[in-house]
Amino acid sequence: MSKNNKHKIIVIGGGYAGLKAIQQLTQNPQNEIILLDKNPYHYMQTEVYDLIANEEDFAQISLDLFTYCIGFKNNNVTFYKQEVKKIDFTNKKVITTVDRLNYDYLIIGVGARTKFVSNVKGLHEYAYGIKALHRAMYFKQKFEMSLFQKVEESGTTCRPLSIVIAGAGLSGVEIAAQMASFARDFYKHNNFLCRKLNIVLVNAAERILRGMDTKLVGKSIKRLLDLGVVIKNKQKVVAVTEDSVTLSNGEKVFMDFMIFTGGIEPNGLIFDLELKKNERGFLETKLSLQTSEYETVFAIGDCTTLYDKNNDILAPTADIAEQMGVLCAKNIGLHQEGKDLDRHNIKSRGILIALGRRYATGKIFGIYINGYLAYLIKKMIERAYSKQLDRHSRIGCKKIFDK
Predict the structure, then answer these.
(1) Which residues contact 226 (CB under 8 A, 6 or more apart)?
(2) Cβ-Cβ contacts under 8 Å for 218 (sequence gap 6 or more)
(3) Which of 152, 174, 208, 399 is deepest in the core (most CB within 10 A)?
């Protein structure tokens, strides 16, 4: 503990896991918490499908971290917009682009990024990712401009707008469904001659949403096909040009643009840390979420890999990340008291898959739900999350402007 009897805790990364840990840790006034992130906002990536289809703007899926951190009643959270360059674990220091900060406890929650594999020629140059907000915004603008260009073509030649999505996990499936649904409604309400949208979902596995509940997979496949999405299973992207994608079977698919959701890797800082990692480069932790090497260093969220009791990987969802944040904060409290730490028993509490406007499918606490009801529940959960964050941010704003 520091000389002033405060526990200095540094959290690296303002994602779902990091913010949840802070919410718990701030309740102890003896904790002095610093949040570090190179971006001044929290990105609610679970709602990116609504951003792309104009259901929400970027202000609704992001949160100002400055005002959020100021908004806690114990006034013990500070946000620094700084990029971490190095961690000196021996001397318990975090080195950023401008500071050297001491810590008693360190939480690493830097998340993950889209992995643009180097052996796919043209992938990095011509494909879009959505793991970062600026990439999602750029893609949204590209999508809108492409629709507009097709409208301008009405009355002359009309070539369908063609989009390739590589990767049929949760992100790829939700984006494919939302774009197809948005385009269908767009054309229905506007009587343009040029009204065709082709979406091709490329999937390396035998079925989409690998590892998920088979009933949910079946519902998702039916919905995508009903929306006109073409699914190409057991195919990989092997090359990308400005206007085409070549698949592993030799087929060439012409497109206006491509989204890549085919894989993730830890954010850059993780590669430079001398901590134990798995074969995919993600941090390994004990069941307490501590790193193997240091008992006061914890790793949470998408930069690490969590396993269930059967040693299967738990999908890196916001739900799992938040549970990790709660356990991490609890274990820091137990460590401060000299008590044994809890071992994780984290499991998914449910999943809801957005499949276009006003439609979703899911399973919550063992109960299957579909259609508009599932959509409403998903939106209620998302709204509850964003309102909780927004409340702290509003309090923070009031503190600043009432001074």
Answers:
(1) none
(2) none
(3) 174
* Overall average pLDDT of the 389-402 stretch: 87
**Rounded to 5 degrees, what angle do the CA atoms 371, 225, 148 make?**
95
Residues 66 and 79 sit within 8 Å (Cβ to Cβ): yes
- The burial of 9, by beta-carbon neighbours within 10 Å (0-12 exposed, 13-18 middle, 19 or more buried), is given as buried
Summarised one tens digit per residue, pLDDT across range 214-260 is: 999 999 999 999 999 999 999 999 999 999 999 999 999 999 889 99
**CA gap 300, 194 in Å, rounded:** 47
Residue 263's pLDDT is: 82
Check if the beta carbon of residue 334 is closer than 8 Å to that of residue 340.
Answer: yes
Joined tokens for residue 360? 């979703």
pTM, rounded to two decimals: 0.90
Q: What is the DSSP letter of 362?
A: E
What is the three-class DSSP state of 327? helix
- Closest by CA position to 143, among listed 107, 176, 106: 176
Find out whether 128 and 146 touch, Cβ atoms under 8 Å.
no
Q: Is 137 left (phi over 0), alpha (psi -120 to 50) or beta?
A: alpha
Q: How far apart are CA 364 and CA 377, in angstroms?
A: 10
How many angstroms separate the CA atoms of 128 and 236, rounded?
A: 16
* Greatest extent of the chain over all pairs of C-alpha atoms, in Å: 76
Q: Are 130 and 48 in contact (CB under 8 A)?
A: yes
Structure tokens at 403: 């001074």
CA-to-CA distance for 59 and 51, rounded, in angstroms?
A: 10
Q: What is the spatial distance between Cα 191 and Cα 188, in angstroms, rounded to a whole number?
A: 7
> Which domains occur in the chain, in start order?
7-38+82-114+265-348 (3.50.50.60), 116-262+350-403 (3.50.50.100)
Rounded to an integer, what distance in angstroms lies between the CA atom of residue 206 and that of residue 261? 17
Q: How far apart are CA 68 and CA 167, in angstroms?
A: 34
